[in-house]
Design brief:
By secondary structure, the chain is of the alpha+beta class. It contains 13 helices and 31 strands. The strands form 6 sheets. The protein has an 8-stranded antiparallel sheet, covered by helices on one side.
């Protein structure tokens, strides 16, 4: 197979527009999957992906295709995620391709992530093929979608293919279009090896398995290779491709996508975006790699059983190998013990990481309230980067606190503009632009604090637009804000896991909600428990958990009043002593309930 007969492409779209279903049809038409092995969402091999109906990880696969002229081609497809939290996966997939299918649901039309992914593909210099999917649905409106695509990028009607990935209509023609439109890869096999590491995962028995795209040179078993970033050398034990399971081959050459196994035991040695070359004849310079993304949401993860700490540490190392956009560092909490401060790209990303740790590694976790990264200027001239509210200095030592802001793009039907405006205003946001997208939809552009978005903003947008609204956002920098540290105290002891930074106008309302919720979930003790919310050292809300009461006078059957008073006085002194030495155990349910407050 020559280089001119290779095509590398991916499918990009908004969430739930049919990417995985279209990939299934490609695998059927090219007979990559045998009928007895077929199942829906073949490339979504994680239980979480199949349960939630979303793609979380990019999945490469090699397909053999013979076109209508009898010419054979090798197609390398990468199915990508659609949710905004996994845009980093999309950008890595685009770097391994020359073309992209831009898939649009004919019923839902162009959505926020459709726009974002289109510009990612445009920046990567890919050949973009616009496709309308689900045109056979009763509520499909292809004319509206065509107008939206024209407004988005100037696509002409004759350029847009119409298919149904579910029934297979038009999918064979789309493959012909891919072969004709997507250019073959550049680079020669007789040059020095230059391969991009775009993904990897850890196997208990075989070590780190590296996913690569060869831009120049060739690679086969027994070759001595070099990771240019870590400058570590290894011998290739196996090279192969995905069909869609891993399958060993004689070797890989320029333009191909595959994997290598090189007995790499330390996950930290492999950096996603690094360049792989040969030790004997290294390439002159590394490939550009990927833009490093900074986590936007931070939360503390703690094992319920402290004995699982080391196992959790090992699990995080392996998980980060598979997901480099996730970061972590050790931390210690007075209430929860030893754990990790973890950074995520968004709330769904955080939820998925939590689920994977529990399912794949069997670790039960407690998660603290998500927060973002703040910048703090102190009176002694220092600048602090703060990802944990517990570390905020005293108010008299602070000159300014800055929080991250985002520019949010919300696509919504015209009927719901007022409801979205109200939500954004409640979240301290400001509308800076509106732009029509066809006749019935509009793109609203807002600037608002990231802290107001991380919990339930996306869910609210979906709710008020009855599922038709979509959200994408980009980071735009830090701005000064009037923030206060909100703390929860149990019997005058601060529970650091509940600490958060909130705007001063919202401190009292949030504090009231927290103490009311905690009163309901913290179990009663033999002594009274005061649950207080404090903002900058001043108590702003309080609830009291009443103690159990034992009737110590029940055994009395006679005598004067002094006998009863003596017993009650003794009980009162005992309860006072118990309150001084007693510990309030905060159940896991309490942390979950506070997390739901939003």
């Amino acid at each position: 197979m020559t280089k001119t007969q290779i095509r590398n492409f991916c499918i990009i779209a908004h969430i739930d527009h049919g990417k995985s279903t279209l990939a299934d049809r490609f695998l059927e038409i090219t007979e990559t999957i045998k009928p007895r092995d077929f199942r829906d969402q073949v490339l979504d091999d994680m239980d979480l992906e199949r349960e939630r109906g979303i793609t979380i990880k990019s999945h490469p696969v090699q397909m053999q295709y013979r076109n209508k002229d009898g010419q054979d081609y090798t197609l390398y497809l990468i199915d990508t995620p659609g949710h905004v939290d996994f845009s980093y996966e999309v950008s890595r997939s685009l770097s391994a391709c020359e073309g992209a299918i831009l898939l649009v649901d004919a019923a839902q039309g162009v959505q926020a992530q459709t726009v974002a992914n289109f510009y990612l593909a445009l920046d990567a210099g890919l050949e973009i093929i616009p496709v309308l999917n689900k045109g056979d649905l009763p509520n499909a409106d292809p004319d509206r979608c065509l107008r939206q695509l024209k407004d988005l990028a100037g696509f002409k009607e004759e350029e847009v293919l119409r298919i149904s990935a579910k029934s297979g209509d038009g999918v064979a023609e789309l493959l012909e279009y891919v072969v004709g439109r997507v250019p073959p890869p550049s680079g020669r096999s007789d040059q020095a090896l230059q391969a991009l590491i775009f993904d990897s995962h850890y196997n208990t028995f075989r070590g780190v398995i590296i996913y690569i795209r060869l831009f120049a040179g060739k690679l086969s078993r027994g070759d001595k290779v070099l990771l240019m970033n870590s400058e570590r050398g290894y011998e290739v034990q196996e090279a192969g491709v995905f069909r869609p399971e891993m399958e060993a081959v004689e070797g890989l050459s320029a333009g191909e996508v595959g994997y290598i196994i090189a007995n790499i035991k330390e996950p930290a040695d492999v950096l996603i975006g690094d360049t792989l070359t040969t030790a004997a004849h290294p390439c002159s310079e590394p490939l550009s790699g990927f833009k490093e993304l900074r986590p936007m949401v931070f939360s503390g993860l703690y094992p319920i059983n402290s004995a699982d700490y080391e196992d959790m540490k090992t699990a995080l190392i392996k998980l980060r190998l598979n997901d480099p956009s996730f970061v972590y560092q050790p931390e210690n909490s007075q209430a929860l013990g030893f754990g990790f401060r973890c950074g995520f790209l968004g709330l769904l990303h955080m939820d998925i990481v939590n689920e994977r740790l529990q399912r794949e590694y069997g670790i039960n976790l407690v998660m603290t309230t998500p927060s973002v990264v703040y910048q703090v200027s102190t009176t002694d001239g220092r600048e602090m980067i703060l990802d944990n509210p517990v570390l905020l200095p005293e108010r008299n030592r602070i000159t300014e606190v800055r929080e991250p802001f985002i520019r949010a793009f919300i696509i919504t039907p015209n009927d719901h503009i007022g409801a979205i405006m109200q939500i954004v205003q409640d979240r301290r946001g400001e509308c800076i632009a509106t732009e029509s997208l066809g006749v019935k939809s509009v793109i609203l552009t807002f600037e608002l604090p990231l802290n107001e978005v991380v919990i339930d903003f996306y869910d609210l947008i979906k709710s008020v637009t009855h599922g038709y609204g979509s959200l994408d956002y980009e980071y735009i920098g830090y701005r000064p804000s009037s923030l206060v540290k909100l703390e929860i105290l149990l019997n005058a002891e601060v529970v650091d896991a509940f600490s958060s930074l909130v705007h001063h106008t919202k401190a009292r309302s949030r504090g009231l909600k927290m103490v009311e919720r905690l009163k309901a979930v913290i179990p009663r003790q033999m002594f009274k428990i005061a649950v207080q919310a404090s903002a900058d050292g001043q108590v702003i809300a309080r609830e009291t958990i009443k103690p159990f009461r034992k009737d110590v006078t029940a055994k009395l059957y006679g005598g004067d009043r002094t006998r009863k008073d003596k017993l009650l006085k003794k009980q009162k002194a005992g309860k006072k002593k118990m309150k001084m030495v007693g510990q309030v155990q905060v159940p896991q349910k309490a942390f979950i309930e506070v997390l739901k407050l939003g």
